[in-house]
Amino acid sequence: MQPFLMFQGRHAEKAMNFYVSLFDDGEVPEVTRWQKGEQGAEGSIKLARLRGAGQSVLASDSPVKHAFDFTSSWSFFVDCASDEEQRRLFAELSDGGGVLMPLDDYGFSKRFA
To answer: What is the pTM of this model?
Structure first.
């Protein structure tokens, strides 16, 4: 199975570049773009693979308009080497976004977000 991020409104490339910038091993090794005459917006991401923190994730700009956007019912787990790395990643990932679980001790983990 492969995690897949579906974006609307040509946001996939910006999100991918942001995610890979956070990790030393971050990269976008594969990108296929929608071409003129195809279903998606020309030049937007048809399918791409990004890698970071040892994980591979697929992403796409959907050509179909949906009544939904991202859902909080799934998550990525990043095993950080230090508290500093965890604080840095939390700050960068939450900047401009909505935090559903602030970095804290929830009983099942000393520091979880």
So the answer is: 0.78
Q: How far is CA 74 from the centre of its chain?
A: 12
Q: Which CATH class name applies to 1-63?
A: alpha beta
3-class DSSP state of 9? coil
| Whether 73 contacts 83, CB under 8 Å | no
What share of the chain has pLDDT > 90, as a percent? 58
Q: Which residue has the tokens 């048809």?
A: 46
pLDDT one-digit tens code per residue, 68-107? 776 655 677 788 889 999 999 999 999 988 888 888 887 7
Residue 24: both structure tokens together? 């030393």
- Of the candidates 100, 89, 36, 35, which has an alpha carbon nearest to the alpha carbon of residue 47? 35
Residue 103 DSSP SS3: coil
Return residue ranges of the chain for CATH 3.30.720.100.
Answer: 1-63
CB atoms within 10 A of CB 86: 17
Specify whether the CB–CB gap between 20 and 31 falls below 8 A.
Answer: no
